[in-house]
Amino acid sequence: MDISELSTPCLILDESKFKKHCDEMKKKCRDLGVTLRPHLKTGKSHEFSLYQMETPEGPATVSTLLEAENFFEWGVKDIIYAVGLSPNKFQKVLELIKRGCNLKVILDNTETAKKLSEFCKANNTEIKVLIEVDCDGHRSGVKVDSNELIDIANYLKDGAQLTGVLTHAGDSYRCVGEAQCRKAQENERDSIVKAANRLKKAGFNINIISAGSTPTAKFAKNWDGVTEVRCGVYCVGDLVMAGVGVYEPEDIALSLLVEVIGHQKEKGWIITDGGWMALSRDRGTANQKVDWGYGAVCDVDGNILPGLLVKGANQEHGIICSRNDNRLKPEDFPIGTKLRILPNHACAMAAQHDHYNLVKGRNVISN
Amino acid sequence: MDISELSTPCLILDESKFKKHCDEMKKKCRDLGVTLRPHLKTGKSHEFSLYQMETPEGPATVSTLLEAENFFEWGVKDIIYAVGLSPNKFQKVLELIKRGCNLKVILDNTETAKKLSEFCKANNTEIKVLIEVDCDGHRSGVKVDSNELIDIANYLKDGAQLTGVLTHAGDSYRCVGEAQCRKAQENERDSIVKAANRLKKAGFNINIISAGSTPTAKFAKNWDGVTEVRCGVYCVGDLVMAGVGVYEPEDIALSLLVEVIGHQKEKGWIITDGGWMALSRDRGTANQKVDWGYGAVCDVDGNILPGLLVKGANQEHGIICSRNDNRLKPEDFPIGTKLRILPNHACAMAAQHDHYNLVKGRNVISN
Predict the structure, then answer these.
(1) Mean pLDDT over the full length of chain A
(2) Mutate: best of A92, A315, A367, partner B, most B CBs <10 A
(3) What is the secondary structure of A126-182 as a DSSP string?
(4) Are residue A315 and residue A251 in the same domain, yes or no?
(5) Residue of A112, A281, A319 with shortest CB distance to B335
(6) Do residue A300 and residue A164 come from a single domain?
(7) Sign for the pseudo-dihedral over CA of B328, B331, B332, B335
């Protein structure tokens, strides 16, 4: 089937670009002597994940317990659920572990550590825990030098079992260019290694030392002391990552196929059937040097049309404009014209769809 | 079940508020002598729609053909698909009509009208069409006074059949207060009636004269000449609508239940498990007088906590801060605390979930 025969709007994955990104990251991690534990939150699909992972059983990272459950049912066993665990999810974690999933959880405070150990003892079980460490003040995690790091560990001796430390250089998304990204990576690496060493010195067994984000993983030259790298969006890329300098827009493997459904002639707008329900509401490039609105515009073959962007998005309508306020001519984009829109944020666009259509050139391989 | 027992993050619908909004809009439309054709895009569920519609068979409005198909399978017959039709969707429309759905479509240009009529003739069928009219330059639609209005109609005599006109006062979302909304409503009404009269004068049968958005429907005093009103988000409300002056934040029927999973103590942040995957990326209040970030914060009973907002959202993490930059105290929000977040845009939040949990007070009626 030719791509133009697909019903719009729909998600397109370019197989060659996707595989290239996966292959490169696998090689990079092998070369640097770290395990790749890819984040599966972008694709959320079995096929996608099989190519990302080193083996069908993992290792892998997920961002929800529903993802953990689905991937476990697809055969993935070694999983880190990399969002701070909270009490209402203890039971679900226990269920997955009892079913045979080698699920590990993270937390960053003594309250949760204490409650989880009590829960484990009450249920006569063990749950493996990584302490989440904050390397850059971005979001969550305990400070590397804090007393709380050791306090938390002390609650993870009996019931809940400390097995490692984990961090995420979330602020690397604000970097621009290789030098800044590498600096973020060195900080990420040094922070998590320091946290691990503090815990080891205090007598704890630290088997997993986990770090990584797409910008830091992409530009890393040395992961000494780190055992594994987690990254997610590297496998497809997006316009935010292009703004960070990780990829060129031409490298982006994910796009939305849309159809021209009308024109606002006086304004020179092209109206498509790809609104924010299909694009997502993500405006991640708004604060970057190049603001892509709701996405960059390509022809049906995936060639970027310079100077165009999706300037507005309603629920089911996309509005394509010229960046320099030239009016677009309706005759250049007749009704029925197919276009492809590159995402600001691939994870956000992918989350709006229940499946993707895999293409090789214009040929739809699976849908 | 008590609301606090639900697994988080999850979508909550307050039954009393929802029913009150539905009842009020039904009454308002009856009082003004117009048919209510509710937009079902917010709830996307059978239960939700049954209470919105005047009868289980409709009339109703949808924004995708997938919605049309689902609602038709649930027994809804009288449906307008209110997004400009494009050629790759003709076949799906035909299928639904052949299965017995009284589906009507909209378009705003001669190209699509011509193609649709040719498609109908080739398939020996008729498809009912409303011409989309642009009343306020917001998005799509043909201008009321344009020659194209009549040109389009001339393509809808044979095969595709003109049955009405439709408009949407999209710019009313930028209004603030009753007076501005009423002005938008009067313009919406006068524009669509004028378009209908031009077509009638030219000899066309115009059975449906369709208008309406939540702000204009809410404040309308007179719909003379209009046959039906479409609105959607009125049934739940959201913070954008509160900014427009349609509802108070306290009236909002939809919210996200989240759990506190951590604290960023030095910054005074509260971290929850409700990130943008659950909240949506919508920042619709960003340009309003009161910017709610990613949402307003309520206690588990739904009482608004003044001065708090979801200032940041990552994929699976929400960051709650004080509006005046006071640090929030971890002890006021212990790990495991349940909170409810009111949406900027209800349709966007609802679209992130596959179902909602219906509550009456704290009691979960269905989940």
Answers:
(1) 96
(2) A315
(3) -EEEEEEEESSSSS--EETT-HHHHHHHHTSSSSEEEEEEEE--GGGGG--SHHHHH
(4) yes
(5) A112
(6) no
(7) positive
What is the spatial distance between Cα A355 and Cα B306, in angstroms, rounded to a whole number?
Answer: 40
CA distance A236 to A228: 20
CATH code of the domain containing A322: 2.40.37.20
How far is Cα B160 from Cα B119, in angstroms, rounded to an integer?
A: 8
Mean local confidence (pLDDT), A142-148 = 96
Mark whether A270 and A333 lie in a shared domain: yes
Q: Are B87 and A338 in contact (CB under 8 A)?
A: no
Per-residue pLDDT tens over the stretch B252-295: 999 999 999 999 988 999 999 999 999 999 999 999 999 999 99
Cβ atoms B58, B30 nearer than 8 A: no
d(CA B225, CA B202): 17
Confidence band for B33, pLDDT divided at 50, 70 and 90: very high
- Model confidence at A137: pLDDT above 90: no
* Residue B27 in domain: no
For chain B, the domain total comes to 2
CA distances for A230 relative to A53, A214, A216, angstroms: 11, 8, 10
Are residues B264 and B298 part of one domain? yes
Residue B357 inside a domain? The answer is: yes
The residue of chain A with its CA nearest to that of B261 is A86
The whole-angstrom distance between A82's CA and the closest CA on chain B is: 10
Give the ipTM: 0.90
Kindly report whether the global pTM for this prediction surpasses the value 0.90. yes
The domain in which residue A332 lies consists of 3-9+247-366
Q: Which residues of A touch B9 (CB under 8 A)?
A: none
